[in-house]
Amino acid sequence: MNALFKVESIVIETERLILRKWELRDLDDFYEYASVPGVGEMAGWEHHKTKEETLNVLKNFIEEDKTFAIVYKENNKVIGSIGVEFYSSTDKLAEFNNYFGRELGFVLSKDYWNKGLMTEAIKALVDYLFNKLNYDFLLCGYFDKNIQSKKVQEKCGFKPYRKLTFNTRFNTKEEGVLNLLLNPEKDIKLIFTNTKTLIYEK
Questions:
Q1: Angle, nearest 10°, between helix axes 51-64 and 27-34?
Q2: Residue 70: is its pLDDT beyond 70?
Q3: How far is residue 96's CA from residue 183's CA, in Å, rounded to a whole number?
């Protein structure tokens, strides 16, 4: 089942990063990385063409309150985001009916790739969701072409779960993998359904 989640006053700090709620003052930083071709496309959305488009997305982030802004301490810039999203197709993923979790989605400014920053952020968020909010599982996906995202998820302990075709926000389809991470502090017994797409190895 999809667990309850709101960012609200949550602040997660790591050695180099701060994860916090989005604010309107983050608009310029957000547009700076969201307008770069190839950044959003790796996550399933088109790069932003105007600052007005970015503002609309930012307002949505604030209203829905399920996405963290990733702040780089060194320069106090927002350099990316991590969303604690509802996972879809709950009817097809019946193995989670008795457990609580969410799906993570993330994006990082191209200027900060290959520095281990997203791995650092996700590990800190996973620790919070498992050890503070007591989630049972987390899902996270990537497109086959997005090798960087694949490697980040592997470093964070996610395992291949299902081979899927993802529908992107710009009406294309991308082949990819949905990964699964179980809370290691819990004795979770999953009975897998819909085995046609299943690739999980216990």
A1: 120
A2: yes
A3: 13
